[in-house]
Design goal:
107 residues; mainly alpha; 4 helices; elongated
Length: 107
């Protein structure tokens, strides 16, 4: 069931932002460890450091601690925030330029 159905009304922007942020954080927390494991298995090459997924997870946790499975999560979110900010500024600049051009055409 969606939150909007539970609330029985349209959601406002802050509610949508909070739900989106929560969904993104949950998705990142689930997929990041999987991505770390996949990357470790791919880059091991012929060294065969790991004997499969379970061994990879156990070795990472034993040698580096559980937080190693989430190492890239913070970097990914910081990167997303920076890129989102840049894209938003470029979009706003483009909109301002378009409005200016429309004003000039009216004159």
């Amino acid at each position: 069931m969606s939150y909007m159905a539970a609330a029985r009304r349209n959601l406002n922007d802050p509610e949508n932002a909070i739900i989106g942020a929560f969904a993104g954080a949950l998705t990142g927390a689930i997929t990041t460890p999987l991505d770390v494991i996949k990357t470790r298995l791919m880059v091991q090459g012929s060294a065969n450091q790991y004997n499969g997924i379970v061994d990879c997870v156990q070795t990472i946790i034993k040698e580096e601690g559980p937080s190693a499975l989430l190492k890239v999560l913070l970097f990914q979110h910081m990167n997303d925030l920076v890129l989102e900010n840049i894209c938003d500024r470029v979009r706003k600049a483009g909109m301002m330029k378009k409005k200016q051009q429309q004003k000039e055409q009216v004159k």
